[in-house]
Amino acid sequence: MSQTPNGHDEFERNRELIHNQEVYRLRQEHARLREAQRRARLAWVRNSIVLLVGALEVLLALRLFLRLSSANPNNPFAQTIYALSEPFMRPFSTLFISPTSADATQIFDLNNLIAMAIYALLGGLAIALVNYLQGPGFQSR
Predict the structure, then answer these.
(1) Residue 120 burial (10 A CB sphere; 0-12, 13-18, 19+)
(2) Which residue of 40, 59, 111, 137 shows the fewest CB atoms closer than 10 Å?
(3) Secondary structure element (H or E) that encloses residue 48, with its range
(4) Residues 47 and 126 sit within 8 Å (Cβ to Cβ)
(5) Contact, 122 vs 52, CB < 8 A?
């Protein structure tokens, strides 16, 4: 079989077409993988925010419970909770005067509730920002 110039050109065109299709598929796959990695990083950031804000909320709730239930402030557990939560309470410490019971043992710390609400709001805003960066088509779980 002798090959004509047209047959050779057709073979080369088909080969080039197949090559171009393969290059296109590889580029699509590379872009898909890059997007998946980006989404995975943002999911990690979102989960970290949820974990940290959740831990802070639990810490502040423990502080509120200890103060409301007249826990001994000299107890090592109470001291640890107060010491860990104090830096987060500092911006709110003088916002309101905390009402106390008649014998001043039970303290309803309104500042603590305000701090919990503000930190939850900030955490929600941070998650909303991450979801915005995630791009269109993202559905929250």
Answers:
(1) middle
(2) 137
(3) helix 5-68
(4) no
(5) no
48 or 20, greater pLDDT: 48
Give the domain extent around 56.
Answer: 41-134
Residue 141: pLDDT over 50: no
Answer yes or no: are the C-beta atoms of 119 and 57 closer than 8 Å.
yes
Q: Residue 128 is encoded by which pair of tokens?
A: 């909303």
CA–CA separation, 58 vs 76, rounded Å? Answer: 18
User: For 60-117, how does the pLDDT look when each residue is reduced to its tens digit (9 = 90+)?
Assistant: 999 999 999 988 989 999 999 999 999 999 999 888 887 666 666 667 788 999 999 9
* Torsion angle, alpha carbons of 10, 13, 18, 21, to 10: -140
Residue 132 near residue 101, CB atoms below 8 Å:
no
Residue 112 lies in a domain: yes
Number of domains in the chain: 1
Q: With a threshold of 0.90, does the pTM exceed it?
A: no
- Asked, for residue 6, whether it belongs to a domain, the answer is no
Distance CA 129, CA 135 (A): 10
- Residue 113 inside a domain? The answer is yes
SS3 assignment, position 116: helix
119, part of any domain: yes
